[in-house]
Amino acid sequence: MSEPARPELTEPAPPEPVPVDGARTRPDVATPVPAEPVPVGAASARPDLTKPVPTEPVPAPGDAALDADPAAAVALPEPAADSRVWRRMHPVTPAIKGWRVLVGAIAVLGYQFGDDLRNAAELVGDGRWRFVVGGLVLVAAVGFVYALLAWRMTRFAVTDQAVHLHTGVLFRQQRQARLDRLQAVDVVQPLLARITGLAELKLEVAGGSGSAVSLAFLKQDEAEALRSELLARAAGLHVGAGAPQGGPVVEAAPEHQVFEVPMARLVQSVLRSGVTLWAGVFVVPVIVGVVWTREPGAVFIMVPAFFGIAGAIWSAINQGANFRAAISPDGIRLRHGLTEARAQTVPPGRVQALAITQGPLWRGKDWWRVQMNVAGYGGAGEQQTENVLLPVGTRDDAVLALWLVLPDLGVADPRAVVEAGLSGSAADDAFGFLTVPRRARLLDLLAWNRRGVLVTDRALLVRSGRFIRRLVVVPHERTQSLQLDQGPLQRRFGVASLVVHSTPGPVSPRVDHLDAAVAAALLDEQAERARTARANAGPEQWMRREGTA
Amino acid sequence: MTTAPERAAGGPFDPTGVTWTPVSSRLAGARLTAMGITTAIVLLVLVPIPLLTGAAWTWAFPAVVVAPMLWAAVLVPRQVRAHAYAERADDLLVRKGILFRQLVVVPYGRMQYVDVTAGPLARRFRIASVQLHTASPNTNATIDGLPPEEAARLRDQLASRGEAQLAGL
């Protein structure tokens, strides 16, 4: 590993100086004010980011350089209660949402008749198809009328504390999402919306699945302006009320691209994934059988399996296409999607846990996949889009992804530590990973040598897996609760498992088969560490953080 | 009330300086009654089979049900004795299990909400259970078999401590 540009975790890897050092928003990091402050490029509504943000912001005229409204961007601790300005979604919304009903109806029909082609052929043959088409037209009409009514009933307002959304035709719903609980903001553009230049704005708060506030659909530039505004407000900046509707109130935070995923690599990675193995296991024998027996009937047995495999490949490519990650003062920004474009923004400190994995077929290329837990995204499904921080990337990309989340790993040589976590084992350990004692190797013959945990000042690193290598990173202040488990076999070998509870998501950190005394000590220390890290962590409103806590 | 096996539950599951509060022994009564009721219902269905058919081997069905129940009935009092909790300055510890042991540490500041529940049977035995929820669905911190007044005290205590250490996620 001696590439010229070896990204270091503590250093921003991009070649040019990043306007905003990711480490700056982390309070634990010693953040020296740069000797010569680099001014943030655009006339931003934020206070100058290179200056330390004051704890108790005083409305100083110099800090609030805003062209539109001089008093608009002053960071007030207690913003004045402002009157709500209710806004509507874009009028084209019903035309886009109405299609869903029709698509659903067609999907049901397809499911009903797709299995039985003969039946479907009869339907077309004897003229009954007119009824089917008529029914579909009726369903579509109902769908559009309902969408229209729903649009009329939907309105939203943004205040300093919350986003209010009123929806519902028959059953009315008034939802209020507190901005200081904001976990992520997504701008989603399904294909139809993309064609018409509209976008959906999704605000994730940590209320489990279905708790997101979805503003669909807005004009794309309006959605993006609203995102900047929401992020600024969530960050603790007071944005002037009564801003002209549609006009950008806050300039988008400057962002800097950190990595991207080339299409060729993505396609190749999908071909090298488990899907291909399954395809080989199922499809090849059937084809061989058909050719052998000259009986094409067997092909139809494969139809569902074929659709499943094709669907999995398609969705992996569709979701991962054009993947780009950037860093901005508002946090991590991810953009991806082929038909459905999605731009996610995860503010600083919102990633609860992170997993870097590598399947056996990716080892030759040294490719890695990075997934994260963000409260609000929820879901543990493998096909979840939002939880992916890096669909496939080189080792450098994976290290960069980790750096995005955790700029300071709390160790002297972060790169080497991460390397040890990714591909090291107990045999070549130089960093003091706590590992499975040799006496307990019978409990885990394959990977006992790999399994290990390292505690740094900032995070817990758990490595595991021989065939599917995995490194899980949990920042100390994001630990929810801890658990110690011991089964009868483990007791026999004097070992125990440590489980770290994180918010719902693809990552569930767990260290198996540690020496019982070591595990117990770790449990105790970790509880203590999580507490201190928590106490030192900055406020949820990330722009109000001090340089050091 | 610490007999030999519970004492052996020390080591990693007995951090130093922690005084455990055991749950009420009435929990054993409640659990045994619940098991008894389930067994009785199943037996009501299974016992008539050999009685009506007269085939001796069909007694195997009720036997298959009763045997594990009897074994479980022996275990229940021990399990209840192993179930304990401890309130520390900054977190709550919950310990349970003998064969499969478990120790959960829940920091007060991570607590999102507390549930106190009591079913009809539990009410008859004058016990309630307290469950702590964090932002993680995996947090398995349930304390069964608390006297109702202790459950109420613990609930208020946890709520106030959680508030004192309030933090986001």
From TrEMBL, chain B:
Keywords, ordered alphabetically: Membrane, Transmembrane, Transmembrane helix
Residues that span the membrane, as ranges: 32-51, 57-76
Domain YdbS-like PH residue range list: 81-158
UniProt xrefs under InterPro entries: YdbS-like_PH
Keyword Ribonucleoprotein attached: no
Protein name listed in UniProt: YdbS-like PH domain-containing protein
Organism of this sequence: Cellulomonas cellasea
Lineage of producing organism: Bacteria, Bacillati, Actinomycetota, Actinomycetes, Micrococcales
